[in-house]
Amino acid sequence: MEVDLSPKLAKKVYGGNGGSYHAWSPSELPMLREGNIGAAKLALEKNGFALPRYSDSAKVAYVLQGNGVAGIVLPESEEKVLAIKKGDAIALPFGVVTWWYNEEDTEFIVLFLGDTSKAHKSGEFTEFFLTGSNGIFSGFSTEFVSRAWDLDENVVKTLVGKQSGNGIVKLDGNFKMPEPKKEHRLGMALNCEEAPLDVDIKKGGRVVVLNTNNLPLVGEVGLGADLVRLDGSAMCSPGFSCDSALQVTYIVRGSGRVQVVGVDGRRVLETTLKAGNLFIVPRFFVVSKIASPEGMEWFSIITTPNSPIFTHLAGRTSVWKALSPSVLQASFDVDADTEKLFSSKRTSDAIFFPPPN
């Protein structure tokens, strides 16, 4: 499989005083197109307002930094206004209209990962804005909009033409946006930094898995996700997704090394991962990571809405522990003593291994 798997940083697509929108391009990260995956980031400055829009792709949003407000309108539903903060994950199915606002000094940054299999362009999100210089209604004639909204044409011209911003604008500091409602978060958002841990290994790492059990809307999105925090110098066991899911990984914090091995035992990637990098592991390829002394944290989506099924190739739950001693001897072409030494190691259930003493 001759595809460049090197991790990449997002590039700015548009923006201004209110903030900016960044995306990963399939021309630079070919696995986006191969896997029908889109990836982008929204960064809002204080009083930055991302105008209402919908997308051609279902997504999972993850708040990387800051606090903000999100407006979400599911098809034929009322607007939900959510207070969101770092660590929040939100499932955004097809047809959902969203807006985003930051009223605080700290930059508010949201990551979007999603499925582009039904998108206009494979590997890219296309957004359709309701207002602004590139809004949908700027393309209709005044007559059509006037009849649709039952308004005088002069009023229509003001509504359609007054907002000169494109995608993101900066509001006056005294402008009052809708107040978030606590009850609107129910079933809409899950904070991965506060949720119960699915895996917790001392001096190894921790995992929170996002699935239909703790956030049912991911079933409509068709994606699962997880937040992994690997302690300093700890290792994530070599393994692969055995339900044919792709692993799309964004490095949230820290750094570390990664190796990916594919067909015929070829190492197809060996590099250092840093915060802001996005990389994709192809189906059935084996991946392993070792964190730097500062540790490493990443957010991943898996192209299945349920808990992903991984086969690990180290540790007590690995396939090695299931195979018969004689099979191991024959496979490795070693004697019984070497096989016993191999089988006696890594006897815990851990998928994260602390650094050597």
Layout: helices, strands, pairs:
Blueprint: E1 11-16, E2 19-23, H1 31-35, E3 37-44, E4 48-55, E5 58-65, E6 67-73, E7 80-85, E8 88-92, E9 97-102, E10 108-115, E11 127-129, H2 142-149, H3 153-161, E12 168-170, E13 189-191, E14 199-201, E15 205-210, H4 218-221, E16 224-230, E17 235-241, E18 247-261, E19 267-274, E20 278-281, E21 286-302, E22 310-312, H5 319-322, H6 325-332, H7 336-344, E23 352-353
Antiparallel strand pairs: 1-2, 2-3, 3-10, 4-9, 4-11, 4-12, 5-8, 5-10, 6-7, 6-9, 8-13, 14-15, 15-16, 16-21, 17-21, 17-22, 17-23, 18-19, 18-20, 18-21
What features would you describe in this structure?
The protein has 357 residues and is mainly β. The protein contains seven helices and 23 strands. It has helices at residues 31-35, 142-149, 153-161, 218-221, 319-322, 325-332, 336-344, and strands spanning 11-16, 19-23, 37-44, 48-55, 58-65, 67-73, 80-85, 88-92, 97-102, 108-115, 127-129, 168-170, 189-191, 199-201, 205-210, 224-230, 235-241, 247-261, 267-274, 278-281, 286-302, 310-312, 352-353. The strands form three sheets. Strands 14, 15, 16, 17, 18, 19, 20, 21, 22 and 23 form a ten-stranded antiparallel β-sheet that branches. It has a seven-stranded antiparallel β-sheet with strand order 1-2-3-10-5-8-13. Strands 4, 6, 7, 9, 11 and 12 form a six-stranded antiparallel β-sheet that branches. Strand 18 (247-261) and strand 19 form a beta hairpin. Helix 2 (142-149) packs across helix 3 and helix 6 (325-332) packs across helix 7. The longest helix has 9 residues, at 153-161. The radius of gyration is 23 Å and the shape is elongated. The two termini are 38 Å apart. The model has no long low-confidence stretch (mean pLDDT 92).
